[in-house]
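Data card: per-record layout.
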Amino acid sequence: MLKITTAILVAGAGLTLAPLASADPAPGVYTATIIDSGKSNKEGSVPGWTIDPCGPDCIHVGTAGASSGFDLHRDDLGWVGDSSDGTWRLEENSMVLTLTDPELVVAIALMR
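The structure for this 112-residue chain is written out next.
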């Protein structure tokens, strides 16, 4: 009995000491809600945005009503990538997607 208990304790210690892994955003459909419109003067929520894996350290964000989307690649703060609209950044913990171009910054919360 002592050997089993010791094995469980050792296994449990290994689990608690292991570093936390960053998880990719869950694939699926999201609602995008503008939380800071910048100079765009846009507001509201748009359902139908999607996140799908597109390879190692890559996610594809598709926007509602668009025939294509954009790819984001993992960096230290989450995910980043460029599109014809500007540079997109998805913060991993908050699921806030930010679009930055030379003239505006727009922040969008993605929620399931």
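Known properties of this structure: Residues 23-111 form one domain. The beta strands are 28-36, 45-55, 58-62, 69-75, 78-83, 86-91, 96-101, 104-111.

See the next section for split statistics.
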